[in-house]
Amino acid sequence: MPDTRDLVDAARSHTVGIVGGGIAGLIVAWECAKVGMTVTLWEAADVGGMTRLDTVGDTTVDVAAGALTRNAAVDGVLDAFGMTGELVPAATTARWLLQKTPLALPESPALGVPANPFASEVTSIIGWGGVWRAYLDRLKPVLTIGNAENLGELVRERMGAKVRDRLVAPHTRAELRLDPDGVVIDVALPELNGALTRAGSLSGGVGLLEQPAPPLGLSGGVGRIAAALRARIGELGGTVYDHARVTSARQTGDEWTLQIATADAEPGEPAQREATQGDAAHSEATVQHLVIASDERGARELLAAHVVALPAETATEQTVVTLAVGGVPAQSIRGAGLYAAEGDAAVARVDHVTAQWPNMPRGSGQEIFRVTIPGHTMADDRAIEASISAIAAAYAADARVLDARVERFLRAQDRAASGHADRVATIRASIAKLPQLDVVGAWVAGDGVAEVVADAIQTAETIRRRALFAG
């Protein structure tokens, strides 16, 4: 067993470079800095990524990730920063269909699959023809050998196309960014196959499932975690750069040499724009361990010179508009918000943030909404216009924009996507051949804060063992 002093010296002598300052990169940096390793993180835009805070109107709000799923990894991080007691359950989880005449979606623990096809919310959306077709599920023999794999196929076969298209698809597209036919049941709904077999029908199986606990927010915003991580990394001697883009990574013996384009800001000091080739100072850094923690597209750019034949990119572009809105009633007449009825809708979902989290401090007469728009093609003013139009129509209100922020993200494929597990296994196997390099983030861990945090902690442990115990 190595002497403790030797381990401390070994930790201090090892340098770790992290490319990407979202929650994954911050977790790795923190975990490595905790044991004394020399850590530097470069983020091309704003540190925190999708898990950061901004001010809209008079309100501090999460720019994208506004809720948490708990697991051991998340609980450990919350406990380390004294935030466990500040978790807040959502006041409402009800959703409506975003269409000309909004309709309430039935409550379901299974991505919209109804337990009772005769419920009024179901009949209003799929009509009586769809209801009687869904009822045939109760009369059909159940599959008793093997598990159904594809959610869309199962729903269509058991309960009909209208249930799949009008009830399930709005949920899978809004929550997973997947068509129902692309959803693997045992990942998205791991208890459904067993419940189906026990009940003898799909709707009966859904009836056996418990409604999930409401999403959990954090008082003051989930983005507080990223801010706390950044501060702690600095306290431990690490360095975090905003608006510093790593443009290339080159192997030089047992080290990695990075080329960096940095906007005009000091370490830890926000810059006014993203660093680009044309307007930035250029520098070079050498590290022993390289961790790529950027989104999928950025990671691929750095890996292109080192890894051949990675599976095709699966990330999707998304524009998120956060608005302070006047003229909309504070009461949650549309629950937590609305999901688009059609897959090609200009607006994919509307989240009524202050209905979900009514204790959020905000200015008088202001309601906060987060609107998700597929793609990156809309200019900011057009995205804001589309967002307020959707809100006004959905709430039958004279809604007006008091303030707005527009963000653009590259969203990773959900873990429940067909082929995701094999694809990630191929990516990890290719990257494992490169010495002293690791990849973290949603594109390999799955698109959820809990999955990303757990994967980043596991990766940091691998790096520490590799550095301190030579493997």
TrEMBL record:
Top-level lineage group: Bacteria
GO molecular function terms listed in the Swiss-Prot or TrEMBL record: oxidoreductase activity
Residue ranges of the region described as Disordered: 264-283
InterPro entries: FAD/NAD-bd_sf, Zeta_carotene_desat/Oxidored
Pfam families reported in the protein's UniProt record: NAD_binding_8
Protein name: NAD(P)-binding protein
Source species taxonomy: Bacteria, Bacillati, Actinomycetota, Actinomycetes, Micrococcales
